[in-house]
């Protein structure tokens, strides 16, 4: 039996409305769970760069939360002042959201990492060991070839100079080329390297070709082969975040306070 044109259009419209309502409801209903999963993923990344979660180790959500709560103390830092920001609860602070909000961020000065905006406050993670701050974990980001790379870098709190780990949790570089930033073997080249040179300038660099071992070639890390542009991006972004517009002032204060 043939239906009238009006029936066909009406039926199609009804299907669209029903599907639209379904998708919208799912998006609303799942928003909280998505936010929770995002938070959990960040916690996993922080644990990994702190060396508190091994490569390939799988943990249940509750185990991640517990390990994080037992070992990590987040701190919101006033980037310019280099001290803890007063009255900002780290649990509710989203640095990437703040960075996009004109009221909570400013234009970044021109820089090689191609960071466009700087949040007024940033989220640093302190790793505690026997009640003392053992490691400091800093969020980092900057442009590679195709994309902004987002990650974390960990420094030894005793000298605020020796790298303990690096990880990127989001980027759009080419798998097998710039995407090798995710290769555990490349990440394993970072611990033991030094960030700051004798004059207090960030000196660490991802070089073209191979670097020596950390003990004798502390400021250089092997380049990613076929991906010099991503490698240079990593150099720029690490130097930027440890420089005067990034965590430089905070690190100066931490040093003065004896790593507290
Ligand atoms: C499809 C395609 C994807 C590429 N992806 C990357 C990349 O993710 N990162 C990168 O630095 N270079 C990438 N390159 C290579 C760059 O264009 C450039 O040749 C390279 O960075 C130079 O590095 P090299 O001097 O180590 O060869 C890509 C090239 C092609 C054709």
Count of individual beta strands: 10
Please list the strands of the largest sheet in the order they lie side by side.
2-1-5-6-7-8
Oligomer: single chain
Major sheet characteristics: 6 strands, antiparallel
Rounded to an integer, what's the Rg over CA atoms? 22 Å
Described by the principal axes of the CA atoms, the overall outline is globular
By secondary-structure content and strand pairing, the structural class works out as alpha+beta
- Number of helical regions: 6
Mean pLDDT metric? 94
Task: Describe the model.
With 260 residues, the protein is of the alpha+beta class. 34% of the residues lie in helices and 22% in strands. It is built from six helices and ten strands. It has helices spanning 5-49, 61-71, 95-100, 184-187, 228-241, 248-256; strands at 72-78, 83-84, 105-107, 117-119, 121-129, 132-143, 148-156, 163-170, 205-206, 220-221. The strands form three sheets. Strands 2-1-5-6-7-8 form a six-stranded antiparallel sheet. Strands 3-4 form a two-stranded antiparallel ribbon. It has a two-stranded parallel ribbon with strand order 9-10. Strand 1 (72-78) and strand 2 form a beta hairpin. It starts with a helix and ends with a helix. The structure holds flavin mononucleotide. Flavin mononucleotide (FMN) binds at residues 145-146, 173-174, 177-178, 225-230. It catalyses: a ubiquinone + n Na(+)(in) + NADH + H(+) = a ubiquinol + n Na(+)(out) + NAD(+).
């Amino acid at each position: 039996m043939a239906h009238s044109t009006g029936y066909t259009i009406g039926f199609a419209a009804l299907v669209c409305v029903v599907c639209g309502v379904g998708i919208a409801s799912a998006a609303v209903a799942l928003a909280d769970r998505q936010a929770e999963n995002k938070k959990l993923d960040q916690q996993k990344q922080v644990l990994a760069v702190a060396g508190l979660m091994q490569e390939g180790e799988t943990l249940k959500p509750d185990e991640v939360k517990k390990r994080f709560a037992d070992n990590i103390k987040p701190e919101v830092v006033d980037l310019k002042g280099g001290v803890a920001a007063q009255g900002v609860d780290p649990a509710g602070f989203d640095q990437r959201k703040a960075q996009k909000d004109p009221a909570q961020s400013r234009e970044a000065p021109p820089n090689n990492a191609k960071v466009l905006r700087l949040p007024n406050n940033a989220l640093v993670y302190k790793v505690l060991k026997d009640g003392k701050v053992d490691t400091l974990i800093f969020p980092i980001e900057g442009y590679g070839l195709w994309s902004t790379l987002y990650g974390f870098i960990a420094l030894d709190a005793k000298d605020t100079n020796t790298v303990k780990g690096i990880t990127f949790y989001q980027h759009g570089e080419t798998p097998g080329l710039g995407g090798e930033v995710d290769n555990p073997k490349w990440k394993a080249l970072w611990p033991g390297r030094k960030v700051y040179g004798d004059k207090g300038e960030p000196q660490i660099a991802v070089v073209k070709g191979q670097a020596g071992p950390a003990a004798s070639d502390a400021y250089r890390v092997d380049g990613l082969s076929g991906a010099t542009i991503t490698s240079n991006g990593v150099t720029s972004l690490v130097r930027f975040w440890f420089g005067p517009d990034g965590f430089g002032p905070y690190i100066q204060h931490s040093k003065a306070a004896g790593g507290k």
